[in-house]
Amino acid sequence: MHIHVLGICGTFMGSLAQLARALGHRVTGSDQNVYPPMSDQLAAAGIEVMNGYLPEHLQPAPDLVVIGNALRRGNPAVEYVLDHDLPYVSGPQWLAEQVLAGRHVVAVAGTHGKTTTSSMVAWILEHAGLTPGFLIGGVPDNFHVSARLGEGPLFVVESDEYDTAFFDKRSKFVHYHPRTLVLNNLEFDHADIFADLAAIQTQFHHLMRTVPSRGRVILPAGEPALEQVLEMGCWSEVERFGAEAPITVTREAEDGSLFSVHSDGETAQVRWTLTGDHNVSNGVAALLAARHCGVSLTDGAAALSVFAGVKRRMENLGSVGPVTVFDDFAHHPTAIATTLAGLRRRVGDDTVVAVIEPRSNTMRLGTHREQLSDAVAEADHVVWYQPPGMDWSLESVVAASPVAAEVSGDLDQLVNTLVERYRHSAKPVQVVIMSNGGFGGVHRKLLAALQAAPSA
After folding, report:
1. Does residue 114 have a known ligand-binding role?
2. Mur ligase C-terminal domain: from which residue to which, for each copy (predicted)?
3. Taking the model in full, what pTM does it have?
4. Does a structural domain hold residue 385?
């Protein structure tokens, strides 16, 4: 079968394309934003990617068109599909029918930490010899791919609450029917499609309705928005963890690099390279999800001790002189704050510089603008990038900033400023570049400029 994927370079759709290729289908795709790591994965899988959404990409007609949720009516490829009666389906529906049917699905949902937690669960199951399938919105460094079919009944899927497609406005995750469900947290996000937090909670309630009675819902204790979802109806086992929950967690290193989990007389200790309270919570959730799949806490902890992290989640891209550059996906004030707090606990008095592009739909709409200033309190210096087309100014965020901050609208100037300011720093400088997109390749530009700069 020839499957053509519209929006193929998105993390979800690109991963889905790789699964279709692994099933033996001929796969092609179209997109208008092509950048690594997804473009590299698709090329390695032998999947042809065409630039733009031209009708001729659909000639001769494929057997099936899988349409990503970023595409809308009026898109020339979408209009061609409809006008010529080409068979089409959403990505989540195709995944549910062709890959997830009959499998033990482990779904990870929530506003933050989905990619990291999903990667942890997949790695724990892999380390235990269970060879799971997975589809993750990032590239776990233990696997170097974002999706695979796997060999057993287990499949881990990062489960997004964003809408399914222009013709299916339900959240993606209602298609997945998990037996093990992790709910990391819940805040207002995706302001372009949800009116308020209650609207998102309704979608989470719909997800809860799909978990069987023999299934299990895992969540941190004391999350009011999640508890309200459970109060709307829950028909499955519930497992909470936290300070006052039946499953307790002890943070034995201030930066979160060492912690223990205590449950039913079993204690498992994790010593790993990750930091921050958010990653401790992610790790505990992953351990409990894997335990529901048959892996003991002790074996799970051994796996997390060699968990290599995820690309674009505080990924260390390299160091030049005193400057180390990290790539991070943070796209929400809470994610920015927790990431910087974790780094601060790890590096102490080092200079921490945050370079942030407010690229997500919610950020571009200005929904969280009042929270952005306080989110960077753990940094020493912040550079906000004003992306083209954003109709509100970041100057108000700078004016309210508790730390030194500035706005830049020119990436080359931004890079030059950072190089001149920090290349001869007397103490280490940690530069965290935050965006949920390619950010004009500013990460590599900065490292290259540092390399090319004259030595002291």
Report:
1. yes
2. 312-422
3. 0.83
4. yes
